[in-house]
């Protein structure tokens, strides 16, 4: 009698228990199968293709970047990912504006005719016309400056100084040049000429190709403005002997031009399986551009960017394969940002004009340079306050690392007083500024950063594979938990 009376009830309970048990087992098996889709052989093959010489360093705003972007989109289509860009395509095109010094500009010091971008660099592409006597003031100490009338003169000085602990030497160098130049101009100088010392010469050889390119921004941005200012010129150490000679004339005519280039974000998705949660997105972020073809170093003029950031791209492609094999409850969104090296332009543009509602993006997991340094070390950017904007998201990544990935996590590079300011230099930043939970996975800087030596042969593809699985499993957790990860209250960056 009891059984008959409650038969339907117990039958329903049995069905419910079975439903809860069976999918749990198959769900775990499916996830394991998806993780297995992330293979080192795929990552290595894709890395050598994307970072090989064929794409010539994928410079943002160039045909090479567009060719590489088409290649990435073809791979995503072949994996079974759906287009999520504009007009039913994998692409979201946007314009970047470049302002540069023209070839008609002239720079003469005494009998020496110098060319911007080769044997001299003008720090800012600003209109200028100066014809003035040159005075050399040594290292520009107060005592040295007190002996010379600099009003109406072009002032030359040798760079000196030691970077404080809170700044990298590169940031100290350029910051000091600009600050001291402004002080000298305010005191009456018509131009400032910096001569490299031994330390500055290293950066003159390595970093000045960016000055040669000029400035980039989205149209209408602050870096697109053309203005007039007293020129600041940077010379190599080899000029010191003749720059000291008296009675030389400095003549500098700077003309500036500004024009637009196309760049592109590649956007793909794997729809979620839950009828409601599929309208929310876990965004896997990276960037496909690098520095392109530049001044040759040791006979190599292609700056391949294998670690920066082909490593992040091939990891993101592998994560796409995993989600294509087993979709999560929430949708997975994959954005390969263009023109990151030009100032995070692709991610800034996507945050302004997302192809899905911005409010539907529950988290951003960014892959930036993940293939170098010690095999067992890595770093999460956005882990520590004030950079942490989602404790939930950070804890999800830490839990996967503890249970699966087992990387020793660097805790210094994410701190606000780190001299490199690394948190502010990748594509998670615009999302964090828009209050979207965001973290970045990275294996940090190395000596080949932004040099032609950043080649595929130097990448630890096993490490890239491990970090790809770490990112995937973190995203899988976020995609399938009942509630979206939360945004920390009162999140505010230090700059």
TrEMBL record:
Keywords from the named record: Signal
InterPro entries linked to this entry: M28_fam (IPR045175), PA_dom_sf (IPR046450), Peptidase_M28 (IPR007484)
An example molecular function term from Gene Ontology annotations: metalloexopeptidase activity
Position of the signal peptide: 1-28
Positions of the Peptidase M28 domain: 265-471
Keyword NADP: no
GO biological process: proteolysis
Protein name (record): M28 family peptidase
